[in-house]
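Hey, I'm writing a tutorial for new members on how sequence and structure tokens pair up, and I'd like a real worked example in the thread rather than a made-up one. If someone can provide the structure for the chain below, I'll link this post from the tutorial.
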Amino acid sequence: MENNASKHRVISKRIIVFSILFLILATSLFYFVLPKFLSPPLRIDPVPSGTYVVPWMQPNPSISVLKTYQSNPYGPPPFNVDSVMANSLKLNMTFNITVSSGPRVIPSTVYLGHDEDYLYVGGEFRGMGLNPNNDPNTTLANYMSIFLDVDDNGTLSFPEAGSQIVVLVYNDTWTTNGLYEDLLWTDYNKVLQRASWVRAEDYTFPKAPAGITLASGFAEYDNPTGTLTFIIARCLRYPVMDKINALQMQPGERWVMGFVLELGFGSDGESMSNNVDGWPRTIYPFLSSDSSWWPKLAIDLSNSTA
């Protein structure tokens, strides 16, 4: 009898140990193995000829270091975006913005680079000048926007993505007051034959904080030359906004998407007005959802040497 009891104890211990091991194995399978089979495959887009490939790089000095310049009581040191964004993709263009006093010709350079978390967008807009819509009591924004056809199907639909830097430029030798906004492409209205961009903060379901996809930025204005210079860090993913922001790149992915740039002056407290021009051409005032003509931009998180 004693031997049988001892055998039962041994068997019971083995059952307990086996159960514990089985539980550990089942838990590991649930948390580590199944998600790999259930999660969608990584998006790896082919890169067509003529695509603008954004290189891996980080600003040097970093944006956080640049922002410390703002606390300098004697003004910041000169901000050379070409040096800060060395090894980035450089796009040279000229914006022609018609204002009340006539055309404003603005030779410009836009800089693009990325690391695993951010798309860095820099800009130098030479001779942009102060906002012509300012009055003695109001300072209105200069702004630059980048719009993204994230699924790259040539037709804008909700959600897509975009970002905008809004800079309040005062009449002195240097000023920085950058606001950063996330832009969302709303559904095309077939009756009105019109589509439009809205700010994430104005999209009410779900309610999203303004500028949540832009991590940081730095801007500077040189009054003698009228040159506006800035750099921003745009998040490549922000899952809390996945229902209203389609730029949700995962590590190891390579996305090709249509993109377009716009430069302009705000009016009456709004970020956009008729004082705007775009590259390769303007899409304002957004009377079409056709993005098939937009140039292509590639961000490759699968290859750190891209």
